Each structure stands twice: as C-alpha cells, then as structure tokens.
Amino acid sequence: MFNFLRCSLFFILTNITYTQTQVLDASWKEITHLKDSSWFATIEAKAVAGNVLLFQRDIGGWPKNIQMHKPFSEGKKRELNELKSIPRGCTIDNGATTQEMIFLSKMYQQTKNGQYRTAFLKGLDYLLDAQYENGGWPQFYPLRKGYYTHITYNDDAMVNVLRILKDIAGSKRFVHLDIPVEKVKKARLAFEKGIDCILKTQYVQNGKLTVWCAQHDENTLLPAKARSYELPSLSGSESAKIVLLLLSVENPSDEVVAAIESAVKWFKETKIEGLREERVYNDNGKLIKKIMVPDAGAKPLWARFMELEDNRPFFCDRDGIKKESIEEIGEERRNGYKWYTDEPLEVLVKYPKWKAKIMGKAKTKGDIDIYNMVVAKDGTGDFTSIQEAINSAKGFPDRRVTIKIKNGIYKEKVEVYEWNTHMSIIGEDKDKTIITYDDYFERLNLGRNSTFHTPTFLVQGNDFYAENLTFQNTAGQKGQAVALAVNADRVLIENCKIKGNQDTLYTTGEGFRQYYKDCYIEGTTDFIFGQATALFQNSVIHSKSDSFITAASTSKNMEFGYVFKGCKLTGTPGLGKVYLGRPWRTYAKTVFINCFMGDHIIPEGWDNWSNEKAMGETFYAEYNCSGPGFQPGKRVGWSYQIKKSEAKKYTVGNILGNQKKEGKPWYLNFRK
C-alpha cells in the first residue's frame, strides 16, 4: 500500500512539474496572457513575479524584450537592484510595461499579495505621466532623443496602453485591484485623450480619411520616419489594431464612427489578393528565404508600408531607398521583417456586427431574408461562404432566391442541390468575384468516375441563373479537373468566366437545356463536354493547348447538342492542331454558326476518337464561319457545311425550347 501511494504521489508531482515546465517554455507574452488562472498561484509563478518586481524601475515602467520568466543569477539581481532608480530604458514598445501590469494583476487576483497591486499602480502612474498633452504616447519615457519621441502606434504600443486604460475606466477586468477612484478618473480622461489623438492623426489623402502611420510627429501629428527602412507611410498592420480598438468604444461619437467607416473603406480598397508568403528554412529550422508567390486561393494581405499619396506598397532596406517589391531588398531585411499582414481581415469580419449594432438592427440568422442574401469574403454580407448561403436558402422555393456575391476570391467547393431550384447567383464583377478550387482526378482517386467529383461549382437545381462570376479549377495540367458542372434544366450562365484545363465545363442531363451567353471559356482537352443541349452565344472559346475543344455525348433522340453562335475561337500563340470536337458518345452533335476561328484550328476540323461508327452517326457542322481556322474545303468528309435554309432552325427558341413562365420564354425570365 505504501509503495502504491508513493508511486501515485510521484506521478502527480511529476505531472505537475511537467505542466509547469510547459508553461515556462512559452514566451513572456504567452505567459502574461495565460488563461489558466490557477497557475498564477504556483511557486513557479511567484518566482517569475519576483523577477517582474525586480525589473520595474522606481518610475514605474519596465524595459523591453526581457523574458521575465527565465532564471537570473544573483549577480544579475544585484545589478537590477542598483538600476532601480535609473529610469533610462523604460518603454511601452514591444509590449513592455503593459504586459508586466497584466501579469501582476493576475498574480494579485490569485495571491492577494499587496506587492503586486502596488507595482501595478506604479505602472499605471507611469503610463499616465508618459502621455503627451495631445493624447499620444512616446515610445520611451523619460523621453529619449530621436524617433523615439514620436507618437508610437508601432507594434501596437499605444493601443496596448489604451486597452488597459479602457479596462481600468470601464470594465470589471481590474476591479479586484480596488484601484483608487481618482486614478480611475485619470485613466478615463487619458483614454479619452488617446482616442482624440487617434482621430487627429488619421491621415487625410486627397481630402479623404484613410488610416495611420506606425508613428506620427508629436508636434505636427503627421506621419513620421523611424528607422532607415521605416519611412512615412500608411500602415496595414498598426492601423488594424487601432480600428479594432475604436470598434470597442461604447457609444462612439460621430467622429469615431467616421474614422472607422473611412478606415474600413481603405482596407477594402487596398487589399492585395492572389499572393501568399512562402518561407524556406534550413536543416536547423532557421528562416533563410522569404518569397511571395501567386496563389488564387490565398487570403487577402496588406502591405506594412503603403505610399501616402496613392497607397502603393513599397519596401525598404537599411539604405532607406524605396523599392517596389520585396525581392529587391537584401535577405537580412527581407527575412527579418514582417512586410505583409492579414490583420485587417479581423476588422472586416467584426465590422458588420458593429455596424448593425450602431444602426440598431443587429442581424441574427433568423433575420436573414432567405430569398435575398449577400455573401462577402470581408464579412460585410449575410455570409462569408457561398455554400453557407445556399444551405440557408429555402428548398423548392415558391419564388426566385437571389444570392449576391461581393468581389473576392472564394476558395470552396460549391453545390447547388436539386432542391435549390429557381436560384440566381450574381457576382459583383466577373474578374473580381472568383470561385475557385483545385481538385483533380488523381488527387480524389475515387475510381474511374473521379472526374465527376472534381467540380469547383456543381449545379443540380433547375432554373438556375449565374452572372458576373469566375468559376475556375486551378489544379493545373494534372488531368481531368472540372471548374463548372451543370446537371440541371433551364440554366443560364451569363457574362461569366469558366477557367481550367482538361474538362473545364461539364454540361450534362438528357434533354436538359443550358444557355451560356457572353462568356469566356478556356481549357486544354475536351474542355466543353457532356450530354446536355447547350447554346453558346457571343462567347470566347479559348484553347490553351493543341487538343480538342468539345466532347459532346448527345443522346440519339435529341435534335440539338452543342450549338455555338457568334463565338470567337482563340488559342494560345503557337498552337495549330486544335480540333473543334470529337465524339464522347457516338451520336454527338456540335454545330458552329457565324463563328470566328483562329489559325489554331486544324484544317480537318474534327476527329472521330477512333470510333468508326461515329463517322456515320455524329452531326458535326458549320455555317457561315470566318477566320483563318475556317477551311471548309479541307474538313473531314463526314462533317457538314449546312445551307442557309438549314441554319434557320438554329434559333434560340428552337434550341432551348419556348416553354414560357410568366409570359416569357424561360431564358428571359431570370431577371425582372
């Protein structure tokens, strides 16, 4: 029994020691924000608190970049005691002073040791004394010559101070410290002055409010230079934390509201899309290279420095000379500095809820109009995901459901289900509203039918309408990879881009009618394929390699398969062996009418896909086409050049059917 108890006790003590060691292995910042409140009552925490008290100067502040939780020698401790009366080095930079105050607050809450409360209050006095009359804070106090006297937003220094003052003045976060009333009043006044300083330093560009620089001159309040590579500019990083602070202000004034609205507008206008930071490490885990690579699915970024005049990103080495790209500066600065940030994304996500609260009409899911929804990547709509909006729509609705998509890159697989009938999905701009994914046959590896699982966007609900969108599959040259698959009847895709490589657009469903109008469709092999009756009108059909444009699988009893009217067939320069089509199934029908064909179209025009029977059963035809690729005299003998009288039957109504709804043909009834 004794041995069992001894082993159990050993296990418990070992486990506690291991857990505490894990805590002490964290950074000082992580420890100050530790959520496990019980740890602050441990022997280890008290030892760390002893270091914190030792580093605090008599003036109340702390130096920066000290890992307070690491052990110090007795000699170092004696040295620190001798430095107590010397205020040099006290700062709010890199979280100094504010982090130590947060730590001491937690220590006092758990131990009620008066030393910690006293030290916290001294820290508060330091922050109050360091504030300029204009409401800003310098990086160092007492003042240190150079750029250190500037009002410092850099690395969120002033925001960190204001958050503590705000909590002292108006929340329960520090109530356990029983802060004297007069100090609470001073904290409230200092916070209000700080907000006023923020409003006064917001940069005006061509008469419009924008955001902030990392530091502002303490006299003129204008953007100011710090280190040689930190020139006056607009900051995507520091400005985000400033706006998040403003969003937390209770009962904001009109000036605060205007500041937020202007900054959010600026963030939306200056976001950088399609770019991702890639890091390379050596065998020892050291960062040796930082490059920016194109990535259509990457989340938006903002530059650390942007021109005051026109918001253009710039980069700078220690020579102080502006460069246009990160690749133009030396590795030391390129790898050792954060040149891009995604922090404004948090602002854009939180802004709609704040806006709704300010307007007095905060939305809940129950408030959303299931017939009219907005999707916005930046959080300014009802949803940030297209699929989430579709999932919220009424099934088999009694009237049309319209989902508007704001500009952005939406990396998601989307499915419009069979029950999502009468749905319209309308983008803001076809070049800027992009739905993308990168599945391909071999990645999914689901057997011989894997192709049909690859679509980025799949439509199965009848009476579907899409406009002003880009559907793309970015898998690259990796085999079958569908961008858009439509397995539905009465579908109109208008003014859209459909981009991919092999098998870009899958149009299917026996007897289903689909209309692709004013679109751009690109690919390599069989990039328009399927069973549906589909009309392509006034569209650009772009081949990216020598291969086949269409692979129709029209059913035997269908009068029309694929019909291209007034389209322009283009190709990547250098191509010369692109076929108009080949039969995926024996009775394929494909007709080109009044189309321009580039010189990439092979004179023979058509291929039988090694199917001798198809040569007698397919219907491949052209009428009144033009361009260097239209060579009717050299076409394969089993294709047709139809007459004008025969071409007359290829009207929109005949091809798509004249079924009327509300007095109009179905393809004219999507938009009122």
Short description:
Pathway: Glycan metabolism; pectin degradation; 2-dehydro-3-deoxy-D-gluconate from pectin: step 1/5. The protein is of the alpha/beta class and 672 residues long. 28% of the residues lie in helices and 20% in strands.
Description:
The chain has an 11-stranded parallel β-sheet. An 8-stranded parallel β-sheet has the order 13-16-19-22-25-28-31-34, with no helix packed on it. Among the domains are: 31-201, Glycosyltransferase (Alpha/alpha barrel); 397-668, Single-stranded right-handed beta-helix, Pectin lyase-like (Pectate Lyase C-like). Helices cover 28% and strands 20% of the residues. The model is unreliable at 1-21 (pLDDT under 50). The protein is an alpha/beta fold and 672 residues long.
